[in-house]
Amino acid sequence: MLAGPVIRKLDEAGFELKLFSRKVNPSMFVNEYDMLQGDLFNPADLEKAVQGCDAIHITISTSDDVKATGAILNAAVKNQIQRISMISGCTVAEENRWFSFIDQKFRAEQLIRQSGIPYYIFRPTWFFESLGMMVRNGKATILGKQTERYHWVAADDLGRMVASAYQQDGTGNGIHFVYGPEQYTMKEILEMYCRELHPEIQKVSETPIPVLKMIAFLTGNKQLKFAASLFSYFEKVKEPVIPAEDLDKLGRAETDFATWIKAKKEQS
After folding, report:
1. Whole-prediction pTM
2. Is 210 a residue whose pLDDT tops 90?
3. Long-range contacts, 255-259 (Cβ 8 Å, 24+)
Protein backbone atom coordinates (compact mmCIF):
# COMPACT_ATOMS: atom_id res chain seq x y z
CA MET A 1 0.00 0.00 0.00
CA LEU A 2 2.81 2.43 0.87
CA ALA A 3 5.98 0.86 -0.52
CA GLY A 4 4.72 0.72 -4.12
CA PRO A 5 4.06 4.46 -4.55
CA VAL A 6 7.40 5.33 -2.91
CA ILE A 7 9.20 2.94 -5.25
CA ARG A 8 7.52 4.47 -8.31
CA LYS A 9 8.32 8.04 -7.29
CA LEU A 10 11.96 7.26 -6.45
CA ASP A 11 12.24 5.49 -9.81
CA GLU A 12 10.74 8.47 -11.65
CA ALA A 13 13.24 10.74 -9.87
CA GLY A 14 16.11 8.69 -11.33
CA PHE A 15 17.26 6.71 -8.32
CA GLU A 16 18.66 3.19 -8.73
CA LEU A 17 16.65 0.90 -6.48
CA LYS A 18 17.17 -2.37 -4.67
CA LEU A 19 14.06 -3.90 -3.09
CA PHE A 20 14.32 -6.17 -0.05
CA SER A 21 11.29 -7.97 1.32
CA ARG A 22 10.05 -11.23 2.84
CA LYS A 23 8.00 -11.73 -0.32
CA VAL A 24 9.17 -10.70 -3.78
CA ASN A 25 6.53 -10.19 -6.45
CA PRO A 26 7.91 -8.61 -9.65
CA SER A 27 4.40 -8.52 -11.17
CA MET A 28 3.55 -5.66 -8.80
CA PHE A 29 5.75 -3.30 -10.79
CA VAL A 30 5.91 -2.00 -14.34
CA ASN A 31 9.71 -1.74 -14.34
CA GLU A 32 12.29 -4.33 -13.38
CA TYR A 33 14.22 -3.85 -10.15
CA ASP A 34 17.02 -5.57 -8.28
CA MET A 35 14.92 -7.66 -5.88
CA LEU A 36 16.07 -9.66 -2.89
CA GLN A 37 13.94 -11.95 -0.79
CA GLY A 38 14.93 -12.43 2.81
CA ASP A 39 14.40 -11.85 6.50
CA LEU A 40 15.61 -8.56 7.96
CA PHE A 41 16.23 -10.37 11.27
CA ASN A 42 18.75 -12.58 9.46
CA PRO A 43 22.06 -10.63 9.47
CA ALA A 44 23.30 -12.36 6.31
CA ASP A 45 20.14 -11.46 4.36
CA LEU A 46 20.22 -7.88 5.58
CA GLU A 47 23.92 -7.49 4.84
CA LYS A 48 23.37 -8.66 1.27
CA ALA A 49 20.51 -6.21 0.85
CA VAL A 50 22.39 -3.18 2.16
CA GLN A 51 25.73 -3.74 0.41
CA GLY A 52 26.40 -1.23 -2.33
CA CYS A 53 23.60 1.14 -1.27
CA ASP A 54 23.91 4.83 -0.42
CA ALA A 55 20.59 5.15 1.42
CA ILE A 56 17.86 3.06 3.03
CA HIS A 57 14.13 3.72 3.09
CA ILE A 58 12.21 1.69 5.68
CA THR A 59 8.63 0.57 5.19
CA ILE A 60 8.09 -2.42 7.44
CA SER A 61 5.19 -4.30 8.99
CA THR A 62 6.28 -6.01 12.16
CA SER A 63 5.23 -6.24 15.79
CA ASP A 64 8.75 -5.23 16.85
CA ASP A 65 9.70 -2.00 15.08
CA VAL A 66 12.47 -1.34 17.58
CA LYS A 67 14.27 -4.64 16.99
CA ALA A 68 13.83 -4.33 13.22
CA THR A 69 15.08 -0.75 13.11
CA GLY A 70 18.04 -1.65 15.31
CA ALA A 71 19.03 -4.45 12.94
CA ILE A 72 18.76 -2.15 9.92
CA LEU A 73 20.83 0.55 11.62
CA ASN A 74 23.57 -1.95 12.51
CA ALA A 75 23.85 -2.89 8.85
CA ALA A 76 23.61 0.77 7.82
CA VAL A 77 26.49 1.87 10.03
CA LYS A 78 28.63 -1.09 8.95
CA ASN A 79 28.06 -0.27 5.27
CA GLN A 80 28.48 3.52 5.67
CA ILE A 81 24.94 4.36 4.59
CA GLN A 82 24.70 8.10 3.96
CA ARG A 83 20.98 8.68 4.54
CA ILE A 84 18.03 6.83 5.98
CA SER A 85 14.27 7.35 6.09
CA MET A 86 11.27 5.65 7.67
CA ILE A 87 7.47 5.72 7.70
CA SER A 88 6.03 6.45 11.13
CA GLY A 89 2.65 7.96 12.08
CA CYS A 90 1.26 11.43 12.74
CA THR A 91 0.30 10.70 16.36
CA VAL A 92 3.69 9.30 17.36
CA ALA A 93 4.67 11.38 20.40
CA GLU A 94 5.88 11.02 23.97
CA GLU A 95 2.40 11.55 25.39
CA ASN A 96 0.94 8.69 23.33
CA ARG A 97 3.45 6.02 24.31
CA TRP A 98 0.89 4.39 26.60
CA PHE A 99 -0.25 2.55 23.46
CA SER A 100 2.34 -0.14 22.67
CA PHE A 101 2.08 0.28 18.88
CA ILE A 102 2.94 3.98 19.19
CA ASP A 103 5.67 3.25 21.73
CA GLN A 104 7.34 0.95 19.20
CA LYS A 105 7.21 3.67 16.52
CA PHE A 106 8.48 6.31 18.95
CA ARG A 107 11.45 4.19 20.05
CA ALA A 108 12.28 3.28 16.44
CA GLU A 109 12.30 6.98 15.56
CA GLN A 110 14.63 7.65 18.50
CA LEU A 111 17.07 5.01 17.30
CA ILE A 112 17.23 6.64 13.88
CA ARG A 113 17.61 10.14 15.31
CA GLN A 114 20.46 8.98 17.55
CA SER A 115 22.25 6.96 14.85
CA GLY A 116 24.33 9.83 13.48
CA ILE A 117 23.04 9.11 9.97
CA PRO A 118 21.16 11.99 8.27
CA TYR A 119 17.49 11.02 8.40
CA TYR A 120 13.98 11.76 7.18
CA ILE A 121 11.05 10.58 9.28
CA PHE A 122 7.63 10.73 7.64
CA ARG A 123 4.55 10.96 9.83
CA PRO A 124 1.47 10.50 7.64
CA THR A 125 -2.15 10.65 8.69
CA TRP A 126 -4.78 8.21 7.34
CA PHE A 127 -4.41 7.11 3.71
CA PHE A 128 -7.18 6.92 1.11
CA GLU A 129 -5.75 3.49 0.26
CA SER A 130 -6.79 2.14 3.67
CA LEU A 131 -10.50 2.60 2.87
CA GLY A 132 -10.62 -0.65 0.92
CA MET A 133 -9.76 -2.56 4.09
CA MET A 134 -12.97 -1.29 5.69
CA VAL A 135 -15.12 -2.97 3.05
CA ARG A 136 -15.55 -6.73 3.42
CA ASN A 137 -18.15 -9.20 2.16
CA GLY A 138 -20.44 -6.52 0.79
CA LYS A 139 -20.37 -4.47 4.00
CA ALA A 140 -18.64 -1.25 5.00
CA THR A 141 -17.72 -1.11 8.67
CA ILE A 142 -15.97 1.34 10.96
CA LEU A 143 -14.60 0.09 14.26
CA GLY A 144 -15.76 2.25 17.14
CA LYS A 145 -17.00 5.84 17.21
CA GLN A 146 -14.50 7.65 15.01
CA THR A 147 -15.52 11.30 15.19
CA GLU A 148 -12.12 12.92 14.55
CA ARG A 149 -11.53 14.70 11.24
CA TYR A 150 -8.35 13.73 9.38
CA HIS A 151 -6.44 15.27 6.47
CA TRP A 152 -6.75 12.11 4.35
CA VAL A 153 -3.76 11.66 2.06
CA ALA A 154 -2.88 9.73 -1.10
CA ALA A 155 0.04 7.30 -0.95
CA ASP A 156 1.38 8.81 -4.19
CA ASP A 157 1.85 12.11 -2.35
CA LEU A 158 3.90 10.31 0.29
CA GLY A 159 6.01 8.81 -2.49
CA ARG A 160 6.61 12.22 -4.05
CA MET A 161 7.65 13.68 -0.70
CA VAL A 162 10.11 10.83 -0.04
CA ALA A 163 11.65 11.35 -3.49
CA SER A 164 11.80 15.09 -2.88
CA ALA A 165 13.62 14.56 0.42
CA TYR A 166 16.26 12.42 -1.27
CA GLN A 167 16.78 15.09 -3.92
CA GLN A 168 17.92 17.52 -1.21
CA ASP A 169 21.62 17.94 -0.40
CA GLY A 170 21.40 15.30 2.32
CA THR A 171 22.92 17.31 5.14
CA GLY A 172 19.75 18.08 7.07
CA ASN A 173 17.55 15.93 9.26
CA GLY A 174 13.81 16.28 9.35
CA ILE A 175 10.46 15.04 10.61
CA HIS A 176 7.83 15.57 7.93
CA PHE A 177 4.07 15.35 8.49
CA VAL A 178 2.09 14.16 5.48
CA TYR A 179 -1.39 15.71 5.41
CA GLY A 180 -3.83 15.96 2.51
CA PRO A 181 -5.76 19.12 1.55
CA GLU A 182 -9.19 18.04 2.83
CA GLN A 183 -10.56 16.91 6.20
CA TYR A 184 -13.17 14.19 6.68
CA THR A 185 -14.33 11.94 9.45
CA MET A 186 -13.85 8.25 8.81
CA LYS A 187 -17.57 7.74 8.25
CA GLU A 188 -17.85 10.68 5.83
CA ILE A 189 -15.06 9.50 3.60
CA LEU A 190 -16.04 5.82 3.74
CA GLU A 191 -19.55 6.81 2.61
CA MET A 192 -18.02 8.77 -0.28
CA TYR A 193 -15.81 5.78 -1.15
CA CYS A 194 -18.78 3.42 -1.19
CA ARG A 195 -20.86 5.74 -3.37
CA GLU A 196 -18.09 5.73 -5.96
CA LEU A 197 -16.89 2.12 -5.87
CA HIS A 198 -19.55 0.12 -4.00
CA PRO A 199 -22.93 1.74 -4.76
CA GLU A 200 -24.65 -1.47 -3.66
CA ILE A 201 -23.64 -0.65 -0.05
CA GLN A 202 -26.28 1.71 1.31
CA LYS A 203 -25.03 2.11 4.86
CA VAL A 204 -21.73 2.35 6.72
CA SER A 205 -21.96 0.44 10.00
CA GLU A 206 -20.19 1.28 13.26
CA THR A 207 -19.24 -1.66 15.45
CA PRO A 208 -18.61 -0.83 19.15
CA ILE A 209 -15.08 -1.54 20.34
CA PRO A 210 -16.18 -3.62 23.39
CA VAL A 211 -18.06 -5.97 21.07
CA LEU A 212 -14.96 -6.41 18.91
CA LYS A 213 -12.75 -7.07 21.90
CA MET A 214 -15.17 -9.70 23.18
CA ILE A 215 -15.29 -11.45 19.79
CA ALA A 216 -11.49 -11.33 19.54
CA PHE A 217 -11.19 -12.85 23.02
CA LEU A 218 -13.69 -15.63 22.37
CA THR A 219 -12.24 -16.55 18.98
CA GLY A 220 -8.57 -15.99 19.76
CA ASN A 221 -8.32 -13.77 16.68
CA LYS A 222 -5.09 -11.80 17.18
CA GLN A 223 -5.63 -9.57 14.13
CA LEU A 224 -9.07 -8.55 15.34
CA LYS A 225 -7.68 -7.93 18.84
CA PHE A 226 -5.04 -5.59 17.42
CA ALA A 227 -7.56 -3.82 15.16
CA ALA A 228 -9.88 -3.25 18.12
CA SER A 229 -7.01 -1.82 20.17
CA LEU A 230 -5.85 0.38 17.28
CA PHE A 231 -9.26 1.89 16.62
CA SER A 232 -9.84 2.29 20.34
CA TYR A 233 -6.65 4.35 20.40
CA PHE A 234 -7.92 6.58 17.59
CA GLU A 235 -11.14 7.18 19.50
CA LYS A 236 -9.00 8.91 22.12
CA VAL A 237 -6.14 10.56 20.21
CA LYS A 238 -6.52 13.41 17.73
CA GLU A 239 -4.50 14.21 14.63
CA PRO A 240 -2.01 16.90 15.77
CA VAL A 241 -2.21 20.43 14.41
CA ILE A 242 0.93 21.17 12.39
CA PRO A 243 2.12 24.69 11.44
CA ALA A 244 1.78 25.51 7.73
CA GLU A 245 5.52 26.15 7.35
CA ASP A 246 6.28 22.62 8.53
CA LEU A 247 3.83 21.11 6.05
CA ASP A 248 5.43 23.11 3.23
CA LYS A 249 9.00 21.85 3.68
CA LEU A 250 8.80 19.16 0.98
CA GLY A 251 5.76 20.51 -0.83
CA ARG A 252 2.31 19.75 0.49
CA ALA A 253 0.29 16.69 -0.38
CA GLU A 254 -2.20 18.04 -2.95
CA THR A 255 -4.34 15.06 -3.97
CA ASP A 256 -7.97 15.47 -2.90
CA PHE A 257 -10.48 12.64 -2.72
CA ALA A 258 -12.09 13.40 -6.10
CA THR A 259 -8.71 13.26 -7.85
CA TRP A 260 -7.68 10.09 -6.04
CA ILE A 261 -10.93 8.24 -6.74
CA LYS A 262 -10.82 9.23 -10.42
CA ALA A 263 -7.32 7.79 -10.76
CA LYS A 264 -8.37 4.63 -8.93
CA LYS A 265 -11.30 4.13 -11.31
CA GLU A 266 -9.01 4.58 -14.30
CA GLN A 267 -6.60 1.96 -12.96
CA SER A 268 -9.32 -0.64 -12.36
Report:
1. 0.94
2. yes
3. 255/128, 255/153, 255/154, 255/156, 255/157, 255/180, 255/181, 256/180, 256/181, 256/182, 257/128, 257/152, 257/182, 257/184, 257/189, 257/192, 259/154
